[in-house]
C-alpha cells in the first residue's frame, strides 16, 4: 500500500504540469507513492504532456467536461489506496522535506485530520496558506475587513505547528480515512470554498487542522485563469453564496444585497482614491468592484 497519493486537478495547465510532476517525482524518491491527475477537459496540450510523462507512478484520468475542482478530486480519490492524500495545485512545487514532514506529522497526530505548509511566491514572499472560517460579519465590512484574514492568512508565528480553521487547498495534506469519513468535497462547489467547507465539517467531528510553518512550497497562484479575473470572481461569489446558505441559512437575496452594498462602496472608494492619486492598482480595484456590483444586481433581479 502506498504511503502517499498525490491528487492533481488540471484544466489548461500545459505550462505548469510538466514541472509539477517532475518535481514531485524528485521529492518522492524513496517513498511508496502515486500521482493521480484528473484532467477537467483541457483544450491545450495538458493531456498530451501528461501522457509523455506516463510511468508506473502516474495515473491519468481525462474527463470530457469541466466538472469543477471538488468533484474532480472526489473521483480521483476513488483510485487512491494510500494512508495520506496530498491535494496539490498544478502550479505548486513542493519539496521532499515538506512531504516527509507532513506525512510524519499526520501519522503521529491522532486528533489532526489535515495539515498545510508555508506557501511562498516566486520571489520568496509569504502568501496565503490558511484562513479563519467565514462569518456573516465578514459580509458587513465595507472598506476594511472587520476580521483580518478571514479569507486568507500568511504565516506569522514562531510556532512550528500553527492551529488553523482551514488549510489552503493549494497544498492540502489529509488522511484518506478522514477525507472519506467526512464525505469528501461537497460537489456543489465548482471552485473556491470547498476546502473551507471540508475543514468546517472536520471541526464538527473534533478533528484539528494545522499548518507546518517550518516547511514550505512555491505557489504560482491561479495559473488556470490566465488573467480571466471575471470568471474567477463569478466562481468565487457563487461558492461564497453556497457556503453562507449552507452554514448560516442566509438567503440568496440577503447575500447578494450585502455583497452589492459592500462592492458598491468599495468601487466608489477606489475610484475616488484613483482620482486623488493616479494609481493602476486603485483603478483595477475600482473596476473589479464595479463588476461585482453588476454581478450582484443581476443576481438580485433573479431572486426578486
Detailed description of the structure:
The chain is globular. Helix 2 (46-52) links the parallel strand 2 (33-40) and strand 3 (58-63). The chain has helices spanning 17-27, 46-52, 69-77, 96-108, 176-181, 194-204, 229-248, 252-276, 280-303; strands at 4-10, 33-40, 58-63, 84-88, 92-94, 112-120, 126-127, 130-131, 161-164, 166-167, 171-175, 208-219. With 304 residues, the chain is of the alpha/beta class. Helix 7 (229-248) packs across helix 9 (280-303).
Secondary structure topology:
Layout (H helix, E strand, L loop, with lengths): L3 E7 L6 H11 L5 E8 L5 H7 L5 E6 L5 H9 L6 E5 L3 E3 L1 H13 L3 E9 L5 E2 L2 E2 L29 E4 L1 E2 L3 E5 H6 L12 H11 L3 E12 L9 H20 L3 H25 L3 H24 L1
Parallel strand pairs: 1-2, 1-4, 2-3, 6-12
Antiparallel strand pairs: 4-11, 5-12, 6-7, 6-11, 8-10, 9-12
Helix pairs in contact: 7-9, 8-9
Strand content: 15-25%
**Assigned CATH class of the largest domain:** Alpha Beta
N-to-C terminal Cα separation, in Å? 54 Å
Order of helices and strands: EHEHEHEEHEEEEEEHHEHHH
What is the number of beta strands? 12
Q: Structural class from helices and strands?
A: alpha/beta
Cα Rg: 20 Å
Mean pLDDT comes to: 92
Helix content: 40-55%
In CATH, the architecture of the largest domain is: Alpha-Beta Complex
Q: What is the total number of structural domains?
A: 2
CATH homologous superfamily name of the largest domain? Spore Coat Polysaccharide Biosynthesis Protein SpsA, Chain A
CATH level-3 fold name of the largest domain: Spore Coat Polysaccharide Biosynthesis Protein SpsA, Chain A
Tally the helices: 9
Low-confidence stretches: none
Largest sheet: 10 strands, mixed
Indicate the overall shape.
globular
Amino acid at each position: 500500500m502506498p504511503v502517499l497519493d498525490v491528487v492533481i486537478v488540471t484544466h489548461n495547465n500545459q505550462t505548469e504540469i510538466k514541472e509539477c510532476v517532475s518535481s514531485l517525482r524528485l521529492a518522492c524518491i524513496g517513498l511508496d507513492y502515486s500521482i493521480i491527475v484528473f484532467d477537467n477537459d483541457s483544450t491545450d496540450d495538458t493531456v498530451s504532456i501528461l501522457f509523455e510523462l506516463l510511468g508506473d507512478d502516474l495515473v491519468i484520468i481525462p474527463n470530457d467536461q469541466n466538472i469543477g475542482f471538488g468533484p474532480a478530486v472526489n473521483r480521483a480519490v476513488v483510485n487512491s489506496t494510500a494512508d495520506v492524500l496530498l491535494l496539490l495545485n498544478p502550479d505548486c512545487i513542493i519539496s521532499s522535506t515538506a512531504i516527509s514532514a507532513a506525512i510524519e506529522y499526520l501519522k503521529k497526530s491522532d486528533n489532526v485530520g489535515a495539515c498545510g505548509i508555508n506557501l511562498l511566491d516566486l520571489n520568496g514572499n509569504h502568501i496565503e496558506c490558511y484562513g479563519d472560517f467565514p462569518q456573516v460579519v465578514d459580509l458587513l465590512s465595507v472598506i476594511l475587513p472587520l476580521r483580518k484574514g478571514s479569507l486568507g492568512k500568511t504565516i506569522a508565528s514562531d510556532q512550528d505547528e500553527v492551529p488553523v480553521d482551514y488549510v489552503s487547498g493549494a497544498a492540502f495534506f489529509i488522511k484518506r480515512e478522514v477525507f472519506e469519513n467526512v464525505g469528501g468535497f461537497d460537489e456543489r462547489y465548482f471552485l473556491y470554498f470547498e476546502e473551507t467547507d471540508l475543514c468546517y465539517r472536520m471541526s464538527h467531528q473534533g478533528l484539528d487542522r494545522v499548518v507546518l510553518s517550518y516547511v514550505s512550497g512555491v505557489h504560482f497562484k491561479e495559473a488556470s485563469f490566465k488573467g480571466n479575473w471575471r470568471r474567477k470572481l463569478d466562481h468565487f461569489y457563487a461558492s461564497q453564496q453556497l457556503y453562507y446558505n449552507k452554514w448560516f441559512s442566509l438567503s440568496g437575496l440577503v447575500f447578494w444585497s450585502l455583497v452589492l452594498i459592500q462592492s458598491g462602496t468599495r468601487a466608489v472608494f477606489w475610484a475616488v482614491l484613483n482620482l486623488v492619486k493616479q494609481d493602476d492598482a486603485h483603478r483595477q480595484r475600482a473596476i473589479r468592484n464595479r463588476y461585482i456590483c453588476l454581478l450582484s444586481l443581476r443576481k438580485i433581479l433573479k431572486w426578486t
